[in-house]
C-alpha cells in the first residue's frame, strides 16, 4: 500500500501557516496518523480522483475527512466541493470547509453544494488549535462512516 492510499485526512490549504497549525493540532492530539496537505484545488481534485501525480493511487481508498479552504489557487474551494459532491464515489466523503471567509454567500453556497460543516478559522492560535482538535475528534473518532 502506498502512502497516498492510506490518507485519513486531506488538508486543502494554500496558506502554509494555517496548514502547519492544523498539522500541529492533529499531532498534539494524536490524530495525525496519515495526513496529506495539498496547496491548490487542482492538486486536491487530482488526489481525490487519482489523476495527475496521484494517478497510481488506489481510487477506492478515500480520506476519512477533507478540510477545505475556499480561497485557493488554480481551482477555488467551491468548485472542488462541487466536484466532490457531484460524483457517487466521492460524495460520501465528509468535507469541512475551514476558511477565513465569513461571507454569507460563501456559507450558503457551500451548504447548497453539500458541505458537511463550515468553520470560520479563528485568528487566535489557541482557538484555531482547539477548533481543529474538536473537528478531528468528531469526524475521525465519533462519526460513523460507511466503508
List keywords for this structure.
147 residues, alpha/beta, Rossmann fold, 5 helices
Account of the 3D structure:
- With 147 residues, the chain is an alpha/beta fold.
- The chain has a single domain (3-142), classed as Response regulator (Rossmann fold, 3-Layer(aba) Sandwich), CATH 3.40.50.2300.
- Helix content is 39%, strand content 14%.
- It has 5 helices and 5 strands.
- A 5-stranded parallel β-sheet has the order 2-1-3-4-5, with helices on both faces.
- The chain is globular.
- The model has no long low-confidence stretch (mean pLDDT 88).
Topology:
Layout: E1 9-12, H1 16-28, E2 35-38, H2 41-48, E3 65-68, H3 77-85, E4 95-99, H4 104-112, E5 117-120, H5 125-142
Parallel strand pairs: 1-2, 1-3, 3-4, 4-5
Short description:
By secondary structure, the protein is α/β, with parallel strands linked by helices.
Mean pLDDT: 88
Intertermini distance: 18 Å
CATH structural fold name: Rossmann fold
> What is the total domain count?
1
| Share in helix | 25-40%
The CATH architecture assignment turns out to be 3-Layer(aba) Sandwich
